């Protein structure tokens, strides 16, 4: 997929104010400091499109970016920030549950995890919730450039082993680096395939 255009559309924390759900949508989410903004910017090759908050964990909003006038890339607020208040954590939970379970044009949620660290309960718990609610998702390992190839493969295999303790099969997995652009083409090709499959389905069924 060639990215010709990517632009900010809106930032909302209320479901009813989200952009019209007439285009396929892909959401990116992960723990604070997982490198989400950097990966989004690398994907669309627009430095500074997705911005990191000066106060991590404080901003609770759903940010929509329109790519090639064809699909939405959605930047969801990070989780796992220690200084977030109980009230803020509950607001995040309600908003995300509402968005992910009700947004009918959301095709996939990309759960970002740091390739350098062991599986975190917050990530595993969120993936379990997605699975229980039948929400299609992928796992995206970030910061792959911070490890040697041997370390990276060892960490990824350990993560897979941990997941298979609770899952019968694994969701799609991607290994990425916003610095080297590793995994960029694979992610975009995956999104492109989903868009084409949806388009074919709509045409076949006269929708």
Explain how this protein is built:
The structure is a single chain. Helices cover 36% and strands 20% of the residues. It has 207 residues and is of the alpha/beta class. The protein has one domain (6-204): Rossmann fold (3-Layer(aba) Sandwich), CATH 3.40.50. The chain has a seven-stranded mixed sheet, with helices on both faces. It starts with 5 loop residues before the first strand and ends with a helix. The model has no long low-confidence stretch (mean pLDDT 89).
Low-confidence stretches: none
Strand content: 15-25%
**Oligomer description:** single chain
| Envelope shape | globular
- Main β sheet profile: 7 strands, mixed
The CATH homologous superfamily is called P-loop containing nucleotide triphosphate hydrolases
Radius of gyration: 17 Å
Number of domains: 1
Task: Report how far apart the termini are.
Answer: 24 Å
CATH class: Alpha Beta
**Structural class, from helix and strand content?**
alpha/beta
Fraction of helical residues: 25-40%
Number of strands: 7
Count the helices. How many? 5
Question: Could you name the CATH topology?
Answer: Rossmann fold
Question: From the coordinates shown, what is the CATH architecture?
Answer: 3-Layer(aba) Sandwich
Cross-sheet strand order for the largest sheet: 1-3-4-2-5-6-7
The pLDDT mean sits at 89
- The H/E string reads EEHEEHEHEHEH
């Amino acid at each position: 997929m060639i990215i010709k255009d990517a632009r900010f559309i809106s930032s909302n924390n209320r479901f009813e104010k989200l952009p019209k759900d007439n285009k396929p949508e892909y959401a990116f989410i992960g723990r604070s400091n997982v490198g989400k903004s950097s990966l989004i910017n690398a994907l669309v090759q627009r430095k500074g499109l997705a911005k990191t908050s000066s106060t991590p964990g404080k901003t609770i909003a759903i940010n929509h970016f329109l790519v090639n006038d064809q699909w939405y890339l959605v930047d969801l607020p990070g989780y796992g920030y220690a200084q977030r208040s109980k009230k803020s954590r509950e607001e995040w939970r309600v908003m995300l549950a509402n968005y992910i379970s009700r947004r009918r044009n959301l095709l996939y949620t990309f759960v970002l995890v740091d390739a350098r660290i062991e599986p975190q309960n917050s990530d595993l718990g969120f993936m379990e919730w997605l699975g229980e609610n039948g929400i299609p998702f992928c796992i995206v390992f970030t910061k792959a450039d911070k490890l040697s190839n041997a370390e990276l493969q060892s960490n990824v295999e350990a993560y897979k082993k941990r997941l298979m303790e609770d899952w019968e099969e694994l969701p799609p997995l991607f290994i990425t680096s916003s610095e080297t652009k590793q995994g960029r083409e694979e992610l975009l090709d995956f999104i492109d395939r989903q868009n084409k499959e949806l388009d074919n389905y709509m045409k076949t069924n006269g929708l």
